[in-house]
Amino acid sequence: MRKSKRILVTGGAGFLGSHLCKKLLDQGHEVICLDNFSTSTKDNVSDLLNHPGFELVNHDVTTPFRFEVDEIYNLACPASPVHYQSNPIQTIKTSVLGAINVLELAYQLRAKVLHASTSEVYGDPLIHPQPEDYWGNVNPVGVRSCYDESKRCAETLCFEYFRKYGLEIKIIRIFNTYGPKMQWSDGRVVSNHIVQALKGEEITIYGDGKQTRSFCYVDDLIDGMLAMMETESNFLGPVNLGNPAEFTILELAEKVLRLTGSKSKVSFLPFPSDDPKRRRPDISLAKSKLGWQPRVSLEEGLKETIAYFRKVFQ
Ligand code: NAD
Ligand code: UDP
User: Which DSSP string corresponds to 210-267?
Assistant: First the structure.
């Protein structure tokens, strides 16, 4: 039988965090969910509030905190470009000071830390698909760098705490993940296109829509995250977690239109600066070290996500 642990999830009320909290509670663990609700609401975890093993704490990760826990999942950070660019300095503080506060606590408690990094550390990649040993192509002074560079710095901090203190750290690089519980106004492409299709509004395509992304369904991602936390202590990552099936944004829009039966028209808007033109994870390492690979196709995952948003707008 699995031993029950006390686990802290920063950013636990967010899209990924809320799924993670639920899964950990289902496994019999106690969960402390820390969030400042800057890009989420309590609604995401409302179904967990009456669970005896669940505690919700309103706190900003940029100031220190202390809870007695065995493990920490560090997810607190805005993930949508619209959100992280709306207050870039706060984004940097959240990533960097948040990581320091998490790592300091983990050091005091000798707790294990899983840090949520991102495919964005590869920037606008010159190597395709992206393996973990690719160092990336990031503009350090562009509008995305508040996120990209602070996430890179957070990875560095994890490694320095490992080198100096032998802290047990795990880094995952998450590629575009979607599913129920994304905020409808989040601004990411999957939620935007579904919401626009359901409301009969124009589907917004930035640029010519030929840029690609590889979309991972949330359940697959959470399985990968949990598998990473359970790997042997000398495996730190970073490890890519994502679905290697690659689609253009136009292909995504066509699928959403077909699956919703919407008559929305497509409208083309300017291509955002530094927006990566191609992105696809090389998941060989995740396959070999975690025995993990995604199972849910884009079509299946979109159907679940569309059903969720239909309920939100009922
Ligand atoms: P999200 O915006 O839905 O969730 C982030 C959560 O962190 C929110 O609940 C927000 O309120 C909270 N938060 C933000 N700043 C905070 C602060 N200073 N103090 C406390 N809480 C704070 O985003 P998500 O998609 O759930 O992403 C979760 C993590 O995964 C992030 O670290 C993100 O960078 C990473 N990630 C996600 C994706 C993806 O496709 N979903 C891809 C790459 C990386
Ligand atoms: N995008 C788009 N229409 C939208 C939102 C995003 O065409 O309404 C594009 C965006 O320019 C990017 C891709 O879709 O090329 C993925 O954007 P998202 O914000 O979901 O995530 P990113 O991978 O850029 O962090």
Answer: --EEE-EEHHHHHHHHHHHHTS-TT----EEES---EEEHHHHHHHHHHHHT--PPEE
Identify the H or E element spanning 160: helix 145-165
Per-residue DSSP letters for 276-305? -S---B--HHHHHHH-------HHHHHHHH
Residue extents of the structural domains in the chain: 6-178+216-243+281-295
State pTM to two decimals.
0.98
- Structural tokens at position 54: 């669940």
With a 6 Å cutoff on the Cβ, whether 85 touches ligand 1 is no
Rounded CA separation 213/190 (Å): 11
Rounded to two decimals, the ipTM of the complex is: 0.99
* Per-residue pLDDT tens digits for 223-259: 999 999 999 999 999 999 999 999 999 999 999 999 9
Ligand 1 atom nearest the C-alpha of 120 is: 43
Topology of domain 6-178+216-243+281-295, per CATH? Rossmann fold (3.40.50)
